[in-house]
Amino acid sequence: RVLFRSLPAADRASRQPSTPCGLSKVPALRDSQSPAARPARGGEASAAMTEEKIDSIQRRAFKTGVRKLLKDTKKKAVKNIGVGYKVNWIRELDSKNATFKADFKLFYYWQDDFFKGGKKGAHLDVRAPGAFWPDLIIANEAELHITHEDFYLRDPATGAVKLSQYYRGTMTVINMNLRYFPFDIQNLRICVRPHKATIREVELTPADDHAIEYHCRHEWNVVGHCTHSYATNPTHSTTGKVYSCLHVIVIAQREHSWYLL
After folding, report:
1. pLDDT per residue as tens digits for the range 76-97
2. For residue 96, how far is the Cα from the chain centroid?
3. CB within 8 A of 168, min separation 6: which ones?
4. What distance in Å separates the CA atoms of residue 107 and residue 84, rounded to the nearest whole number?
């Protein structure tokens, strides 16, 4: 039971509102279920403090990461290299050994202040002392040879250069899936990446020139091609580094009539 005590007349008069409705004296009502209306319990207060600490730590980590990234960028600017290609032919796709033979050209574009002021179209030394050398490799090569190489100056004002390399040989197929044989489609990749330069030093991007020659119909039919840019997983590196990687993908479809009557 709740017992009410009668107040003296003077006290009752002093508690009456001064205005007719008393709106100016009545404080704003609070919802009894709102966090502001009830005192925070120990567990809730601790959780709120923990969330604030986590947010504060995340903000500090983000600011630290941004400052480190800007510092690294100022130390050494990222070299952007455009990658173009022309696939001449794809042959002998071996499902047993997951390999294929290919003949293709790769075109690399970048700018180097070392070659500024030279003669436009002049052939350059790819390993001239003091010049930038990207040192790019084909990560999924099995037995590949460079048959021809050409390096020349495109724009003397900016130092824009172009490196062309012609390849011929055997490549490995990444993730060959034969689940839908003989109705399978395979992605034949040419995986280009720097040998040692990380993504903070060299970044590969698709260039505008990309083509593929006509392929005669045989067991495999070339139905398309494209490029994808990736960043490698640092857990797959012994030093925890991340590399820029560009894949030239040729899409080949098996001719199922070779196996079905």
Report:
1. 678 999 999 999 999 999 989 9
2. 32
3. 102, 103, 144, 145, 147
4. 5
Burial of 36 (C-beta count, 10 Å sphere; 0-12/13-18/19+): exposed
Do the beta carbons of residue 222 and residue 252 sit within 8 Å? yes
Answer whether residue 31 shows pLDDT above 60.
no
pLDDT of 234 higher than 80: yes
* Neighbouring C-beta atoms of residue 176, cutoff 10 Å: 18
Structural tokens at position 119: 């003669």
DSSP 7: P
Residue among 252, 251, 260 at smallest CA distance from 182 = 260
Determine the residue type at 106: L
Judge contact between 219 and 240, C-beta under 8 A.
Answer: no
What Å distances lie between residue 22 and 9, 15, 18, 27, 202, CA to CA? 19, 11, 6, 10, 73
Q: Residues near 25 by Cβ (< 8 Å), separated by ≥ 6?
A: 17, 18, 19
Reported as type and span, the H/E element at residue 42 is helix 42-75
pLDDT reading at 32 higher than 50: no
Q: How confident is the model at residue 216 (pLDDT cuts 50, 70, 90)?
A: confident
- 135 vs 10, which has greater pLDDT? 135
- Burial call 91-129: b when 16+ CB within 10 Å, e when fewer: eebebeebbbbbbbbbbbbbbbeebeeeeeeeebeeeee
CA 217 to chain CA centroid, Å, is 35
